């Protein structure tokens, strides 16, 4: 028997790759003869960078940036081995999971944070695309603080 394990994350509990591993561990016990294939998925929001890093063998690079309320935080983006493509998960800087219920106010939060965009322009892009005409790929969150 062949089994494809292809879950999304379990929100606020486990990222998709860990969900795959947990399901696979259970299936190895209950169906030791089965051939298992782990294939984590994401819907483009929280966890998308981790899933794409799994599938694309991205190098995850941490940077200083700001959240949707312009508070400092460390976030990450993924970079392909050739350095020509970046994957930016906006949920890492502007996702709802970074804000308390009281902070989720569209009048004071922004997914278009000028400071976050400046961080990308001044920190990420010059380091990896100076003199390079390629355009970085972006994984945008559908779970951002402002719709």
Over the alpha carbons, how many angstroms does the gyration radius reach? 18 Å
Strand arrangement across the biggest beta sheet: 3-4-5
Going by CATH, what is the homologous superfamily of the largest domain?
Glycerate kinase, domain 2
Question: How would you describe the oligomerization state of the chains in this entry?
Answer: single chain
CATH class category name of the largest domain: Alpha Beta
Number of strands: 5
Helix content: 25-40%
Stretches where pLDDT is under 50 for at least 5 consecutive residues are: 132-147
Question: How many domain modules?
Answer: 2
Looking at the structure, the CATH topology of the largest domain is Glycerate kinase, domain 2
Distance between the termini: 43 Å
Give the overall shape.
flat
Beta-strand content: 15-25%
SSE succession: EHEHEEEHH
- Would you tell me the overall average pLDDT? 79
Using the 3D structure, state the CATH architecture of the largest domain: Alpha-Beta Complex
Question: What brief labels describe this structure?
Answer:
two-stranded parallel sheet, alpha+beta, Glycerate kinase, domain 2, 4 helices, 147 residues, three-stranded antiparallel sheet, disordered C terminus, 5 strands, flat
